[in-house]
Amino acid sequence: MLVEERNAIALQAPVAPPLALAAGEPRWLGAAETYHAAAPDLAVLALDAIAIGVAIALAGRPRAAMAPAAVAFLLVGALTRLYDRRTTLDTQGLAWFLRRLPLPLLAVGGALALVGHSRSELVTQTAAVAVAVTAPRALVWFGLARARRRQQGLQAALAVGPPSRTSELVRRLEAFPESGLQVAATYAPATANGERARTRALLRSGAVTQILVAAESHDDALVHELLRWTGGHAVDVAIVLPVGARATGMAHIGDLGVVTVARAGEHPRALWAKRSFDVLVSALLLLLLAPALAVVSLAIYLYDRGPVIYRQRRVGLDNREFTIWKFRSMVPGADHLADHYASANMASGLLFKLPDDPRVTPVGELIRRLSIDELPQLVNVLKGDMSLVGPRPLPVEPSEFGAEAARRHRVRPGITGPWQVAGGHVLGYDDMIKLDLAYVDEWSFRRDLWYLAMTVPTVMVRRSVY
C-alpha cells in the first residue's frame, strides 16, 4: 500500500493512546523506557540509589559512605538535568546518558572525600558507581531496541511537511525502529481544509506523542498552530533536518538530525515545583500580611457592617467551578444589581466592566486600586483551587467558553497573570484569551517568576481600577 494511502486512512481512524500497551506487547516496556530515559520518577531514583549503594558495598567500603554518595549523585543529577523528561529520539543508545554523567560522578567523588577516602579509593569507587548506573541501562537498552525492531512499544508520530519530505521520514522510521516512533499520519500544510480538520482531530484525541516537522524551512506560525491543536495533551514538536545536517550529540532518526523546538502539555516535575512554590509563598505571605489583612477586614466591616469576604463561583482547572475569596469591595448584594447596569457594560465577550462603578464602596475603591481585595485568594492557592500565576478566573458558566477559549483551563487560574500584567480591563476579551492561550502553550517556571516580578509595578501604574 502506498504511504499516502495508508496515512490518509490513519488520519480518519482513531489511533490507540500512546501510553496504552497494544495487545500482545510485554508489560515491562513502559517501565523499561522510564528507567532507561532517566525520567524524574521515584522508582528510577530509588533504583539508581540502590545501584550506587551496592557498588560501594561490594568494594568493601564503610556503609557510612553509601548514603552521602547516593544523595550527592541524585541531587547533582537532578540539578544538571540527568533526570529529566525525554523523548525516545533523545534516548537512543547510551551516549546521551554518558554525556550527563561527569558532574554527578564528580559530586560522588566529593562526597567520598568528605568521609575520608584516599585518592586511589576515590577513583575506584567513582568508577564503580559509573558502572553501576550505566551497565543496567545498557542491558535495558538492548531489550528495548530488540522489542522496537519487532514493532513493539512504538509511539505514534505525526509527520508534517511536503509529501517528498514526509515520505523520506516514513522510510527512515521504518528502517530505524530503535527511534521508538512510527508514523500514524502525515499532514501537508498546503493541502485542503479536510486534511487540516482530520489532523486537528488526531492531535486533540491525544493519540500522538511526537510531531515531526519535515518542512523545507522552519515556520514558527506552523509550530504554534500545531501546538494549539494538541488541546493540552503532552506532545513534543521537533524539526527534522535535511540529510547531512546532523551534528554530534543531536537526536536523530538514522542519518536525519532532529531538534526539539517546542513541548505541549504539562511537565510533571515542573508543575510539581510550581505547586510547591505556590504553597510555600502563599503560606508565607498570609503569615507576613496577617496584620494588614486584619486592618482591611476591620475597615470593610466598620463601613457598613456587611460581610468582609466576598465569595463567588468561578471557572477553574479542567472547567471545574470553585469558590473564589476576595475582600468585599462593593455594597452587599452587588451581584443582583449587575443586570440593572448591563447596558453600561464597557467590556467585551465574557468580561463585565462599569465606568465609575456605583456599587463600589469608598473602602472598596482604595483596596481595588492597590489590588488588596485579591489577597484572600492566597487561601484559594493553598487549597489548590488557584495558582499565584495563571489565567484570570471568570464568573461565568463553563459552557459559555468556546472550544478554543476553554484551553485556558488546562492550568489553574492565577491571582496574577498575563492579562493583569498586560493591562487588565484596558484589554478586550479576545486579547485576554490570546494572552492566556499563549501562557498555557509556552508555560515555564521562569515565565511565572517574571509575571510575579512585574505585578508590583503594574499595580502601581495601572491604567484602570475596575
Model description:
The structure is a single chain. The protein is an alpha/beta fold and 466 residues long. It has three domains: 3-19 and 153-265, NAD(P)-binding Rossmann-like Domain (Rossmann fold); 28-149, no CATH class; 269-460, no CATH class. It contains 17 helices and ten strands. The chain has helices at residues 3-12, 28-36, 42-58, 66-79, 95-100, 102-114, 119-149, 163-175, 193-204, 220-229, 268-288, 290-304, 362-369, 377-383, 418-422, 429-441, 445-460, and strands at residues 155-160, 181-187, 210-213, 235-240, 251-253, 256-264, 309-315, 321-327, 387-389, 414-416. The strands form three sheets. The chain has a six-stranded mixed sheet, with helices on both faces. A two-stranded antiparallel ribbon has the order 7-8. The longest helix has 31 residues, at 119-149. The termini are far apart. The model is unreliable at 1-21 (pLDDT under 50).
SSE map:
Blueprint: H1 3-12, H2 28-36, H3 42-58, H4 66-79, H5 95-100, H6 102-114, H7 119-149, E1 155-160, H8 163-175, E2 181-187, H9 193-204, E3 210-213, H10 220-229, E4 235-240, E5 251-253, E6 256-264, H11 268-288, H12 290-304, E7 309-315, E8 321-327, H13 362-369, H14 377-383, E9 387-389, E10 414-416, H15 418-422, H16 429-441, H17 445-460
Parallel strand pairs: 1-2, 1-3, 3-4, 9-10
Antiparallel strand pairs: 4-6, 5-6, 7-8
Helix pairs in contact: 2-7, 3-4, 3-7, 4-6, 6-7, 11-14
